[in-house]
Each structure stands twice: as structure tokens, then as C-alpha cells.
Amino acid sequence: MINPIARRSQMAPVGRAVRAYVSPVERPSGTSSPFDPAAQGQFDLESPPSPWLDLGWVENFQRTAGTKYEALRSGPSGSITVQYRSQPEARVDFDLPSWGKLQMAIAGGSQQMNVLAVLPLSPPQGSGGTAIPPSPLQSGSTLTELVLTSDQLANYNVGDMVAVDSDYTGTIGYVGAGAPAAYLSSPLNPSSQSDFIRRVTFNVSRVSSKTSTSLLLAQSLIGVPTGGMGVQRVMAFVDREGSSFFQEWSGLFVIVGETGGRACFYYPRLQVAASGVETRQQFAAPVFGHMLHASLHALPTVDGNDGETVLCYRSYFPSADAALF
């Protein structure tokens, strides 16, 4: 028989940090990426299932519930007879020690732009000047291999960052392969802005090696390469405070218990709640860390099992032999 005291000691999900994952929301329909505790209880932290993307470990994770609780009162003494909830609201805040395109997008909230390599003497722009023309993607390309003609391969070196996406042709709406990267309410000039989608796309990676026909990528692209796409070299990432686009992602935050248990917080829809700022993490003076701070609002979704409005799901997976209550 298992000692009940030992089993109760297993109930606390004591963890050292919180691991964060996001997945793009399908913007036109508002469809979010599912996290089913029954099917994904053993969510692989090191290799999350598609379409989830790893944000890494986060610091200072804080959940805030802002939903109002109202009451109806009756009788001479004004006793509470019925309670109800109004103005559902929830928020999540955290700091990101790691900087990258995805991390900057989550913390910044608006278009997260790729600074494309520019032509010589290009007039300077805050988000990058006139870019070197793209290399046409050839058939046979995959999420981890970009097939190019031999003359175009010479333009790239191992270690280069690249963006892979379609030419802009004057359309409006959401753009970007793999994840909505921007929204255009009115068309741009396609003759001068043909590189726009590659300027904002999340379909980026780093060249890990080259063959005689292709670039091999260090990380898988999030959008499938298709005919008509182009490849351009990326020099840096940049975001802008004050632009109009709102990022929207599904979020999953995992506390990995040192005793074996696991707590998960799943937000079907998250949008930025504040402009991008940084927080300072002091090390041995004068060295310090500069962390990205993310502040996100939870948007409501409907649970298909009962039609209830939901902002967040909190699930707990007890460790083996732990008491259940």
C-alpha cells in the first residue's frame, strides 16, 4: 500500500521556470490551434507538435483575471440571490530572456519585419531600403531545403538568414506563409513593393550548409515552400511602435514539476495589450540582461462541448502515485 503522506507530497507542481509555446491563429476565420489535454498531455517540450512553435523559457510569468463578478440582491437586507460574471477579461505577462523574430513579435505586437539585404547606395529606411532582388525558388524545395539555380546559390553563405515567401502583387488582407504577418486594408504599389511579404513573413530560417543545388536550413520553415516564392537574405529583425497591425496567437505555458507533475495554461487567442518594452535583469555589475516584456490580452472563444465562452484553460497532470485531492 502506498503511503498517503508520500502521495500527498507529490501534489505540488514545483518548477524552476515556465516554458512557452505559441501557434498562429487563422485570422480570417478566427480559428485557434487546439491543445487537448487528453491527447497532448505528454506535450513534447523539446519538439512540440505542429503548428506549435517554441518560445523558450520565460521569466516572471504572471496571469491576471479581470472578469467582473456581479450580484443581484433582493429583500429588505439586500441579500445576494444570484451571482453572474460580466465583461470577461484575462491577461498574461512574462519576460523573454531570448531574442528572436518570434519573441520580438510576441512582445512587440505589430508587424515584425525582416530587414532585407539592400542594393548598394540604396536610400536608408528605418525598416530597410531597396532590397537585392529575390532568388526564384525552384521545384523540389521543402521546409528544410531551398533549391536554387547555381548562379543564385552563389549569393548565399552558410550562416545567412533568409526569408522565403511570395511576391506582393497588390492584394489586400492578411499576408505571410505559415502565419499571418501583416494586414493590408488598401493595396500597395506592387511595382515598388514586390518584396513586402518577404519583409514581414515569419517564414525565415538560417542557412546551415550548402549543396551544389540547394541551401540546407538549420530550422524548419513554418510555411510550405510553393512555386512562385522567392528567397532573400535577411540582415536583422525590426519592429515599430505605433503601427496598426495586432499579432494574434494561441498560447501554451507549461510549468514542469520537479516531482513529475505538470501544469498547463492554454489560451486559445492572445493579442498584445501594451507596446513593446524591455526589462533589465541584473548580473554582476556592470553586466546586465535585456529581456523582452510581453503583455497579452486573452480574447474569448467558445468551447465546443457546451457552448460556454472561455478565455483560458488550466489543466494539471498529476505525477505518478500523487494524491488526487
3D architecture notes:
This protein has 325 residues and is mainly β. The protein has 2 domains: 11-70 and 85-109 and 246-317; 114-239, no CATH class. The protein has 5 helices and 21 strands. The chain has helices spanning 4-9, 37-40, 101-108, 150-153, 196-200, and strands spanning 18-24, 53-65, 68-74, 79-86, 90-96, 112-116, 135-136, 145-147, 161-166, 173-175, 182-184, 204-210, 214-217, 229-239, 248-256, 262-272, 277-282, 288-298, 301-302, 309-310, 313-317. The strands form 5 sheets. Strands 6, 7, 8, 9, 12, 13 and 14 form a 7-stranded antiparallel β-sheet that branches. The longest helix has 8 residues, at 101-108. The radius of gyration is 23 Å and the shape is globular. The two termini are 18 Å apart. The model has no long low-confidence stretch (mean pLDDT 89).
Keywords:
seven-stranded antiparallel sheet, mainly beta, six-stranded antiparallel β-barrel, 325 residues, 5 helices, globular
Write a brief caption for the model.
This protein is mainly beta and 325 residues long.
Mind describing the biggest β-sheet? 7 strands, antiparallel
Gross morphology is globular
Q: What is the strand content?
A: 35-45%
Spell out the helices and strands N to C.
HEHEEEEHEEEHEEEHEEEEEEEEEE
Mean pLDDT across the residues is 89
Low-pLDDT runs: none
